[in-house]
Design goal:
The chain is an alpha+beta fold. It is built from two helices and four strands, in the order αββαββ.
Amino acid sequence: MINLLPHIQKEKLQEEKEKRVLVHWLVLILFFGLSLSLSLLTIKIFISEKLKRERFNLESQEKILDVKAQKEILETNKLISELLKFEKEKKDLSGIIAKVYRTVPTEIQLNNLSILKVPGDEKKNKERLQITLSGFSAERGNLLRLKSILEEQFDEVSFPAQTWVKEKDIDFSVTFLTKE
């Protein structure tokens, strides 16, 4: 095909063609930019909603953890107080046991020692310890000496009557209370 248009018109046509191509490119770029903007906007909305849900979950988990931590702290405090109470009682018991062993004459052999808590005087609201000893004595005189020592240092010393029947090789038991 032969183009018989004058040169000026040919240039105008070429310019119009270039303008149309430029407009098409601008429309394509504008469409691409708009599509990209909308895609990024939906991603932003999706991420912000997910972030809100995660924050809510995190806050609720923190509240649960705070409650759990408080329970653990209370349980730990309770355990520590029980341990301190046990340690105090242990110290008291070790002192009582040492006192009992110091009072028993060396001629007497102990086989058993038991300690029970019993209620004390209601006015003082303090517990007392009931101690039961059992053992062996070669002679009655050693038991009489043990009885007198125990009566000086403890309350309500009680030997069963059958203990005093034999003169030698005596298996005995005695029960007494700590002083208040």
